[in-house]
Amino acid sequence: MNKELEKINQTLEGKSFEEKLKAFFHTAVAINTPVAIWRKPQEEKIQATCQVTEGLDFVEEIESASTGFLFNCFKSNQQGNFIRSEINLDQESENLSISPKLESSDRLNHFFNQFAQFQEDPTEFNFQEQLKAAPHVLDDKQAFIQLVEKCKTHIEEGYYQKIVPSRRSRYQLPKGFHPVHELMKLCKSYENAFVSLVYTPEHGLWLGATPELLIETENDQYFRTVSLAGTQGIPKNFNLSQAAWTQKEIEEQALVSRYIINCFKQIRLREFSEHGPKTVKAGNLIHLKTSFEVDMKATNFPELATVMLKLLHPTSAVCGMPMKPAAQFLEQHEGYDRSFFSGYLGPVNDKGTTSVFVNLRCTQIFKDGGIIFAGAGVTEDSIPELEWNETEIKFRTLLNVFENI
Ligand SMILES: C=C(O[C@@H]1C=C(C(=O)O)C=C[C@H]1O)C(=O)O
């Protein structure tokens, strides 16, 4: 097996990282196997992993999971998807490597053969032909405004404090669109984002650049999460310290912080640090963010990642408060299935670190175009027209990059 790998790595010499990444992605899609490519915020390195053996795992416990990539939809009662890291490509080594646990198999040979073939003729493969056609999407401004009004009425009646309705919209992929190239452009444009491209035969192709961390653990010691809400577009050359926030936005973000603190309270965790709220830049937008950190060793909470993932998702940044009734409201009134939008995703147990993000500012790519998603936090002070505008500028985070604006 190592000989096979050596041979493949020799063929990579002299190729650019983007060419290698494209070959990796094309191979996985062509042989119908799940693949994830990602770049963490503030990091240079792009990593890719794929699973050639059959069957996606369902991860019960983060701590005992193998190294891999978690990809979960919005509805928390639906099973998670976990792509086991079997074949890897990262920007540091620039080479393919395989998990020491992986045994030689037909599937692995199939991957190697296909990869070698794409090395020889990189232009041959049209990834889009492997994808499904996009569903029909009803994207109507008036309908969304009415949905926001409905949220407000329910909030005023006292059932909820906040609801986060969302919408999706179809767009045409610009000429020459390639998801790997777009991922590289997103990495360059948005250094604070978690940028990812995920494909599974069952769930299709997703590309995103999210600003929102859900949970992170570092070296089995530090646990981190954030509360992020409040949104404004920013003009170019804007100074962050000049940001002004309305009472509505301050309260909307404080609700998310309270939700996180309540989760800590439920498990009787009292020792955590809290920083913020601070204004942060996320692509073409600014948000209010508070960061939380727990020393898992000092508090004797080694399984905090698993416990908090279950408690936090979906947070009031993407669903509402109180959580369960807000999720039911959305199920009843939102009018479509969010699927992986506002679910969560990220690398697990990768050199001692797990980083899982909320899947925002994302798009699903189909045979015949893309569908883009965005939501907006509604409170009793919301102005429906402005919430619509907010979803429009959230779409622009990706679309500006795709259209080179
Ligand atoms: C729901 C989204 O974003 C969330 C909602 C925000 C808001 O309402 O201001 C801000 C950041 C995110 O927590 C989205 O980007 O689609």
From TrEMBL:
<protein>
    <submittedName>
        <fullName>Chorismate-binding protein</fullName>
    </submittedName>
</protein>
<feature type="domain" description="Chorismate-utilising enzyme C-terminal">
    <location>
        <begin position="141"/>
        <end position="394"/>
    </location>
</feature>
<dbReference type="InterPro" id="IPR015890">
    <property type="entry name" value="Chorismate_C"/>
</dbReference>
<dbReference type="InterPro" id="IPR005801">
    <property type="entry name" value="ADC_synthase"/>
</dbReference>
<dbReference type="Pfam" id="PF00425">
    <property type="entry name" value="Chorismate_bind"/>
</dbReference>
